[in-house]
Amino acid sequence: MHQLTIAGKAYRSRLLVGTGKYKDFSETRAAIDASGAEIVTVAVRRVNIGQDASQPNLLDAVPPSRFTILPNTAGCYTADDAVRTLRLARELLDGHPLCKLEVLGDPTNLFPNMPETLKAAETLVKEGFQVMVYCADDPIQCKMLEDIGCVAVMPLASLIGSGMGIVNPWNLRLIIDNAKVPIIVDAGVGTASDATIAMELGCDGVLMNTAIAHAKDPVLMASAMKKGIEAGREAFLAGRMARKYYSADPSSPTTGLIGS
Predict the structure, then answer these.
(1) How do beta strands 4-6 and 9-11 pair?
(2) Which of these is catalytic: 9, 21, 100, 143?
(3) Which GO molecular function terms does the record list (predicted)?
(4) 178 a known binding residue?
(5) Is the CB of residue 164 less than 8 Å from the CB of residue 158?
């Protein structure tokens, strides 16, 4: 199967994972290993990746030599805050340009503020960042983000941390069918079947955090998500049979039967 390519780099895994909400860095690393993920996203405002030399550094447990670190702007509510946060992250990561942009509009539901997201994306792309962007499942605005120059567009399946799964598959299909960059579902996945459905729809990948970190057994759930992603991708490539309300066609051929 073709690998996932983002900003010119190929990845074997189509599962991207977060690093928040685990009990400690050891559990974080164990879950990441079980997931098979190669891209790991880090909330710069919430996790230490070198901002505080006196505190444990996540990068000691999840080293950039082993994983592609994807700094994100979780907790930012304006374009200016998001841009400042990613400038800091690029310094901390020795000029690493790949980033995840999210500008939130409401602290209760964490839905994206799309005008601020578009504004921040324009600035970051002009400054040489390779922007993967969390956004609403709006086909028009997703295309606008692609046209700005984002290297991946990441519409939500449902609200961050909700575990509600894909609430609007039809919008996702519109986005996928109109895209020339990877479309990665970001937010809302609750279990492995949700990830499988996203991949069966034709998404290029899925990014998740809470679904794994808040499972009763995060490491086992990470393993399940890995399998769900792989199964969904294979099913998409295989091409499912047509849906029929009723069909009298038997599963096995009837010609050539003994006695016929």
Answers:
(1) antiparallel
(2) 100
(3) thiazole synthase activity
(4) no
(5) yes
